């Protein structure tokens, strides 16, 4: 099982790293940017709302 | 200047431990290891030595002095190993790095202040203080966790006894730093990536960063688990059996540092078993993990009848435990995850975005960016191994006890994978690069703000701007029972009472402290013998007994003084929020009986709005004759 999973993961070196990074096209970048905005945005919102509930609790609302 | 001496001692001691570990590996095992593996190997050797001496009741100031001098002999090889590493700082990552450096500096200074956190005072430094005083690693029936796996507390004992509690606390901070740097080194070695990215990713995990200044034993377990994974990975690459033997040793050391690391051993075994690469490897790993992981559990089995005491009380009956405790504590503990398939599937998402039920924040990086791996294939094998091991760990963790903090052993592994994704994102340039770096910087800054609430006062105390006395009297902490509420309360509301007892009572006086799972006055700053009377954690004074037996138990334990915490009394009285919990009526009756025994036979000598201190010499005079 793990062997088949590990097929996804192969050895690489730094140069192929950079190549992989730089080879991302414009669409790829947009997809990644949207994903990051959603992932981090949702996290910061969850933090914000947890603060709101604390403020409400503090005010007894 | 005390904090400078404490810090210098600990830094030099840590470097020396790394030198000791590396020396042992090089000259005895004929293997070269780096500074980080050397540090944890040195900790392992120190633990074996201290455990042996502790079991044989050999702890003394002279022994600690000899031990410290011996470790310092390896300072030069340790320094040599450390200086082989260089951290190259990428200009694009300079902002999050500077923020992280500031947060770490403040945490480090904070850890050099007198300890004030409840768990630290109760267990992490409380037990080392008791052991150093008693000369042995004793089991204390009124402190149930004194029977569990305690490698970290053992390692702190000589530092606390010979230098100071602040130095011991700073040593744990240094273990955390070593984990951070060790994970970066592993990332760089296994993926040829930039180590700084791994440092930033792990440094953005609130769960990892917020406990750095409080002597938590998790960091040592995490470090052992990380080295075990590295050795396992080296075994897969080289096929050399000795690497899997080392992996077993470090996994065993992790399991004997904190019980939740037993899950790591199980996950590693699953990895090894599923690969079916070599039955010898599975056997070697299992044997070494058992040898190095089992001593504390065997000790617990001998002392209490339960290897996992105080957990699994219904499975392993112990004379020190009542089934009633499990029922009552389970019903009154904070709400925990309701485990079913649907909740399991959504748990990674909720761990990031709705973490309250898991009692700790993992932050978005270790989990939320992982789906992007699909865009950056092929990823390094090490990333795959880290993820598969983490997946096994996660499943077992969810089944046993889904508390976020118990995930810590795999947080560095998840961070390796997340660092790889983040590095690919930053390499790609454009908006993703900016977004990634900005998000990491904000995450770290938020941790700084979160930990910064207690920091100014602690730093003032550490640097001597306010006296220790003044700090301990006035220190405020977040309500430990409701950490999400932002409500602050005095850290040591009983500090003046301890001060009074330290001055006025005989050296051999014994103090009983009435406490509970929710209101735990601790005896760390009380320079007298003490026992904790938690109605749902101990049977030394059994709250299910009648008045006469309770009175007798107080006399048999030579209790000279009893501290009554009215908040605890309220918990077990009519109108309590726990009145529906199983066994409440028994415990409530026991509490009333206990109060009658103390108030009718003792002499009230001190009272505050929350505490009563009773002198119990009268009770001793009444009962000593007939029962002696």
Question: Topology of this structure?
Answer:
The complex is a heterodimer of chains A (61) and B (628).
Chain A: H1 2-6, H2 14-22, H3 26-59
Chain B: H1 2-27, H2 35-55, H3 61-72, H4 75-82, H5 94-111, H6 118-124, H7 126-134, H8 151-162, H9 165-191, H10 195-203, H11 206-209, H12 218-238, H13 241-255, H14 262-275, H15 279-293, H16 295-304, H17 323-332, H18 341-353, H19 365-368, H20 381-400, H21 411-427, H22 430-452, H23 455-462, H24 468-474, E1 476-478, E2 488-490, H25 495-504, E3 510-514, E4 529-533, H26 547-556, E5 559-565, H27 566-571, H28 584-601, E6 603-607, E7 611-615, H29 617-627
Parallel strand pairs in B: 3-4, 3-5
Antiparallel strand pairs in B: 1-2, 5-7, 6-7
Helix pairs in contact in B: 1-2, 1-4, 1-9, 2-8, 2-9, 3-8, 5-9, 5-22, 5-23, 7-8, 8-9, 9-10, 9-12, 9-21, 10-21, 12-13, 13-14, 13-15, 14-15, 14-20, 20-21, 21-22, 26-28, 26-29
Task: Give the total of beta strands of chain B.
Answer: 7
Estimate the mean pLDDT confidence of chain B: 92
Strand order in space, largest sheet of chain B:
4-3-5-7-6
Largest sheet of chain B: 5 strands, mixed
What is the residue-averaged pLDDT of chain A? 67
Shape of chain A: rod-shaped
How many angstroms separate the termini of chain B?
A: 52 Å
Label the structural class of chain A. Answer: mainly alpha
What does the model show?
The complex is a heterodimer of chains A (61) and B (628). Chain A has helices at residues 2-6, 14-22, 26-59. With 61 residues, chain A is mainly alpha-helical. The N and C termini of chain A lie far apart (53 Å). In chain B, strand 6 (603-607) and strand 7 (611-615) form a beta hairpin. In chain B, the strands form 2 sheets. A 5-stranded mixed beta sheet of chain B has the order 4-3-5-7-6. The mean pLDDT of chain B is 92. Chain B has 29 helices and 7 strands. In chain B, helix 26 crosses helix 29 (617-627). The interface between A and B is large, with 39 and 47 residues.
